[in-house]
Amino acid sequence: MSKYSVRIVQLLSDDSFIISMHARVRMFERNVSTDDLVILLKNGEIIEEYSDDQPCPSVLMLGYINNQPYHLVVGFCEDHLRIITVYVPDEYHWIEYKIRRKSE
Fold it and tell me: What superkingdom does the record give (predicted)?
C-alpha cells in the first residue's frame, strides 16, 4: 500500500475531504454521488503520482461504479484530500484505463 493509499484511508475516516467546484460539476454531469465518490476513493487504485504538483501533491486514481470506470484526480493537502476532478476515461487514450497510450 503506497503512502498515498494510507493517507486516503486516514483522511476519509476523519471525513477530511473537499470536493472542488470543478469536480462537483463533473460529478453532476456523470451522475456520481458523494457516496459513489467515497467508494471510488476507498476501493480505487492509484495509477499515477504527481509528487511535484502545486499547491499539493496529487494522484490519478482508477475506480469502478457498477462496472463503469472512473478516473479521479486527488490532491493531498496538509490536512485534507482535495477532489480535483472525476471523469470517465476513454479507451482511445488509455490501455485498460490504467496506462496512457503513446501519442503517434
Answer: Archaea
